[in-house]
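This part of the workshop introduces the protein records we will be handling. A record pairs a protein's sequence with a compact description of its fold. Backbone structure tokens are a discrete shorthand for how the chain folds in space. The question running through the whole workshop is how a given chain folds. The record below serves as our worked example for the rest of this section.
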Amino acid sequence: MSAFSNVERPAVFPVCLCIDVSYSMQGPPMTAVNDALPEIKAAIKSDPSTGEIARLAVVTFSDQADIALPLTDIAFADMPVLSPQGGTNFDVGLRASGDALRDGIKGLGKGSAYHQPVIFFISDGEHNAGVDWTHARGQITSKEDKYGAQIVSFGFGQANRETIQQVSTGFAFFTDESDPGTAVREILRTVLRSIRTTSSSFSSATGGALSVPLDGTKLTQLPLTQHMVN
């Protein structure tokens, strides 16, 4: 999936931000998200090496999920303005993220090359819907699926560390930052840095790999547990 297409266009790097917008996100956390999205657009647009290959989707979830921004060239994206609503259902958020990536990659056109998609999952709370979200996670990360994604998960606030670990396919992080707005800003800055460093790595002789830089942050990487391995 990382090779160049037959028209010599560089392989696309599909990324989805899966953001909890339940009522617990109202106030400073939601303000921080809405401030950060245009900043992410500006930063990627100003970085030609990232902007050339990175494609971004934004999915929100509460009781239900919404593809707020389909997978698109961020230079031409109108970044959504998000608002809090409802409870917390990881299942619908993960499924919608998988749909956004699959539909977006299909929309690239026949023969288009792409790197393995990545979902950045962000939540401040616990899944509280009566459905097992792990089935959705298993489907969208399946190695048997050509659209199978990696998931990088971030937790803060009232999120459960073990659950944040379970969502992830390898990279899981938590912050004990007491101010939720500051926590969100740090998480989204880390997401941006990850998109940029990972995009740059694809031009290396080794073919590149997912990278999540933590230097200068208060994020703690959670240990990988056996049941998180695909």
About this structure: The mean pLDDT is 92. The radius of gyration is 16 Å. The chain has six helices and seven strands.
